[in-house]
Automatic annotation (TrEMBL):
Residues 326-585 form the Protein kinase domain. PROSITE patterns: PROTEIN_KINASE_ATP, PROTEIN_KINASE_DOM, PROTEIN_KINASE_TYR, SH2. SUPFAM superfamilies: Protein kinase-like (PK-like), SH2 domain. One of its GO terms (molecular function) is ATP binding. One of its GO terms (cellular component) is membrane raft. ATP binds at L332, G333, A334, G335, N336, F337, G338, C339, V340, K357. This is Tyrosine-protein kinase. One of its GO terms (biological process) is positive regulation of MAPK cascade. The active site is at D449 (proton acceptor). Belongs to the protein kinase superfamily. Tyr protein kinase family. SYK/ZAP-70 subfamily. Keywords: ATP-binding, Cell membrane, Cytoplasm, Immunity, Kinase, Membrane, Nucleotide-binding, Repeat, SH2 domain, Transferase, Tyrosine-protein kinase. Residues 10-102, 163-254 form the SH2 domain. Its main location: membrane.
């Protein structure tokens, strides 16, 4: 899982005890000086290294079965950060309280641990093979879904390893290990017939030894009395470094002959993988598979562009043929331009569900021009977290044909499912919005109307930014767009420089992102209560900001406040915003992994 301490400035990752002591020495050896490092022995655990009376102390922090963290004999805490906070107030058995964090010197990043790089490579390979993704689509999938993919991998990764021999009997394991050379440490892993347990068979001194692998109630694996691990492959990797109770450490894998026969890697075992959404519930949402892994954005038909297939790309044009479009009578929504209808668009090889924005026939020319500008902007964008424009159709009326996001606007969804959607679910969705916005920032586009009503859901765990009616493409050398006159503007979402100087940039989109976050974490409430636009402006000018929504985590509120930095020069950009929310999202994905309440709440969303 992502590292729950990755964001802490006093976290050094996988460094040795001696290195930790060097850093503490350099920082002055004052009483209570401390740092945190990764523990190799217990997976997901840490070591707290500290100074008291010019002596070093090292305390192992174990990750418990229920996902909490504790120093042996001490109280449990929901994360390493909370644990350090606790010991800064109360020594509770430590040599003294934690007084001063020994932060990493500038330029020093946390050292990746032996499992971290393996894990990263594995996630990459898994996503590449399972969803056949490459390039940007692959990168975006990894960033947005790493915690979910890691959970999937945890249960299946060993099946792809050459040392995994599946369900073979003990004497067959011996036959395989005795054939060919028999160096010390040659090993294989096999299923035991009884109740899905595993066994490790190992050569030492030309003799084969067999070890049972136990699995505890929380699903962790270990050899009897040995260190516990979340996955079998981590157990094996660890036993390659340390014997941990075995007669010898693991050295050379005895390759599974059936795996060697097929040159290609074992097929992925992801349970859902269908590129279609499948049947929708009556209320338009994809039901969450209960007990199994849920539908990931990459499982849906709208993750990749419909033109990602080179055959289909040949037909990509802004104007679409009317006879390729079937319009349903079902209305998805409405605006002052007209209505949005459901439909199907026929491509070369497939038919796709679409949403069609139909212009009212009696609309003036300006509305029509606005709609064409929106179409031209959207046509240049291609990102999994932005509603894609398929094209424009000029027939009985002007129509914009877009990808379908059948879950509807985020604010409505959250206000109707308040008791069922967890905070971590909202963090996941808002992280996706930040990824879409980071892409816009990179492409030099400003959205100018980012709000929860313009974030549409594909399903409960997949959001896309929509409504580019006010958007602008900036010139290559411009960092902002200057509106000549003020229009019908969503003032409550606008940064001070938009209202005062009509200046719009990615930084003003960041302000709107802050307001959108506020709406999301208050489950779809309207921002600034009953205030009118001009009242909001004077509220902001007085240095006031909206309060933290009741259930909103402090880290998220801190980010909102950063987004509402008065001066746009000092406000963070989306590169930084995405990074901050990603770190928080990964850290809670780690914590809620075994957190009962949170998971229950999200499961109840689609009974
Ligand atoms: P808009 O004027 O773009 O905000 O669209 C009005 C309403 O139509 C939205 O609030 C949605 O309910 C619906 N809608 C717009 N675009 C889509 C889409 N791509 N997929 C599904 N529904 C949409």
């Amino acid at each position: 899982m992502p590292d729950a301490a990755a964001h802490l400035p006093f976290y050094y990752g996988s460094i040795a005890r001696s290195e930790a002591e060097e850093y503490l020495k350099l920082a002055g050896m004052s009483d209570g000086l401390f740092l945190l490092r990764q523990c190799l022995r217990s997976l997901g655990g840490y070591v707290l290294s500290m100074v008291c009376n010019l002596q070093f102390y090292h305390y192992a922090i174990e990750r418990q079965m229920n996902g909490t963290y504790a120093i042996a004999g001490g109280k449990a805490h929901c994360g390493p950060e909370e644990l350090c906070e606790f010991y800064s107030k109360d020594a509770d058995g430590l040599c003294c309280t934690l007084r001063k964090p020994c932060n990493r010197p500038s330029g020093v990043e946390p050292q990746p641990g032996v499992f971290d790089s393996m894990r990263d490579n594995m996630v990459r390979e898994y996503v590449r093979q399972t969803w056949r993704l490459e390039g940007d689509a692959l990168e975006q999938a990894i960033i947005s879904q790493a915690p979910q993919v890691e959970k999937l991998i945890a249960t299946t990764a060993h099946e792809r390893m050459p040392w995994y021999h599946g369900n073979i009997a003990r004497d067959e394991a011996e036959r395989r290990l005795y054939s060919g050379a028999q160096p010390d440490g040659k090993f294989l892993l096999r299923d035991k017939k009884e109740n899905g347990a595993y066994a490790l068979s190992l050569v030492y001194g030309k003799t084969v030894y067999h070890y049972r692998i136990d699995q505890d109630k929380s699903g962790k694996y270990s050899i009897p009395e040995g260190t516990k691990f979340d996955t079998l492959w981590q157990l094996v990797e660890y036993l390659k470094l340390k014997p941990d109770g075995l007669i010898f450490y693991l050295r050379e894998s005895c390759p599974n002959p059936s795996m060697a026969a097929s040159a290609a890697p074992a097929p992925p075992t992801h349970p859902s993988v269908s590129k279609n959404l499948g049947p929708l519930n009556a209320d338009g949402y994809t039901p969450e598979p209960v007990g199994k892994s849920r539908v990931l954005p990459m499982d849906t038909s709208v993750y990749e562009s419909p033109y990602s297939d080179p055959e289909e790309l040949k037909d990509k044009k802004l104007f679409l043929k009317r006879d390729h479009l079937m319009i349903d009578e079902v209305e998805l929504g409405a605006g002052n331009f007209g209505c949005v209808k459901k439909g199907v668009y026929k491509m070369r090889k497939k038919q796709i569900d679409v949403a069609i924005k139909v212009l009212k026939s009696n609309n003036e020319k300006t509305v029509r021009d606005e709609m064409m500008t929106e179409a031209q902007i959207m046509h240049q964008l291609d990102n999994p977290y932005i509603v894609r424009m398929i094209g424009v159709c000029e027939a009985e009326s002007l129509m914009l044909v877009m990808e379908m996001a059948s879950g509807g606007p985020l604010n409505k969804f959250l206000s109707s499912k308040k008791d069922e959607i967890t905070v971590s679910n909202i963090v996941e969705l808002m992280h996706q919005v930040s990824m879409g916005m980071k892409y816009l920032e990179e492409k030099n586009f400003v959205h100018r109307d980012l709000a929860a009503r313009n974030v549409l859901l594909v399903n409960q765990h997949y959001a896309k930014i929509s409504d580019f009616g006010l958007s602008k493409a900036l010139g290559a050398d411009d960092s902002y767009y200057k509106a000549r006159t003020a229009g019908k503007w969503p003032l409550k979402w606008y940064a001070p420089e938009c209202i005062l100087y009509h200046k719009f940039s990615s930084k003003s989109d960041v302000w709107s992102y802050g307001v959108t976050m506020w709406e999301a974490f208050s489950y779809g409430q309207k921002p600034y209560k009953k205030m009118k636009g001009p009242e909001v402006i004077s509220f902001i000018e007085q240095g006031k900001r909206m309060d933290c929504p009741t259930e909103c985590p402090a880290e998220i509120y801190a980010l909102m406040m950063q987004c509402w930095t008065y001066s746009w020069e000092e406000r963070p950009g989306f590169f930084s915003v995405e990074n901050t929310i990603r770190t928080y999202y990964y850290s809670i994905a780690t914590k809620t992994e075994n957190g009962p309440k949170a998971e229950d709440k999200s499961k109840a969303a689609f009974p």
